[in-house]
Amino acid sequence: MSPEIFIKRTLAATSVQRVEQIQALWSGYGEIVRYQVTTRDQSYSSVILKSIRLDQVMAHPRGWQSELSHQRKLESYRVEAHWYAHWRSQVKEVARTPHCYAVHQTEDLIYLLLEDMDEAGFPSRHTRLEWDSCLPILDWLANFHSRFIGVQSTSEYRLWPRGTYWHLATRPDEWQAMEESELKDSASHIDQTLSQARFQTLLHGDAKVANFCFSELCDQVAAVDFQYIGKGVGVQDVAYFLGSCLDEASLANHLSYLLEYYYAELARCLVAQGESADLASEVCMEWRSLFDMAWADFHRFILGWSPTHAKNTAFSQMVSARALALLRRS
Fold first, then answer.
1. How large is the average pLDDT for residues 246-271?
2. Which of 3, 15, 244, 319 is paired with 33 by a 20 to 30 Å CA distance?
3. Which domain holds residue 90?
């Protein structure tokens, strides 16, 4: 089925016109395209179609192509389809995400027909932020994490057993490529520390700043790209987000404040949805103790995947060293 026919049938549209490619998917698996549509009620004029091809192995831009990486990528698109079909409705009132009009899946193709967040009032995108511009995304993460606190199983609706795209069990090649080091030797211990934490939630799994759409005043955000959603501790998303948008100086000067802001908002959200203040305090206390572990977990991935990457910073090395020191004392 062509994209135009799928959109026309789904929306009962009288016209469908391709406008622009917003993004080609990583390694050439498909594309994200904006379409102009005409519907009888004229409630919207454009939609976004994410088209994924599942029937071919693509070349990885950094040379990591393998059957394992191919299958991981295919599963990520299936996971995202299941997220929109079965889970997204649980957060629509507290953490803004695109409405999904329809999901179409065959053996070799997935279509996700999504709300256009530009038209919905979130037209701005950023790759870097000033420290105080991080607050709306920390609000979003706190609301999202609080909604799924205590999640037990993700298998019923096919989310990842463990969230994040760098999860150790899905990245054996990158781990093997690491130079011998204490961090490499401690990778499993760090992973177990995170996975065995008492308080688990759902993670966005790829919460970089580029996956958030900002309102015109940049005081509200919506999140997109849920390919790596799964269980974890909330500070895994927080660590990855802050590392994606702040330089080393901003992290050194403002990290403590930003973390306390997130924990305060997380506690507020938990109490607002009916949890006790004591439980909210316990969640924040545990996740505070795990932030350095979460940071080191991603740093482990970077050192195997691309050790010369700009994310391999002195600040990241320092936080990872703190995590390793904690492990040595445990």
1. 98
2. 244
3. 3-115
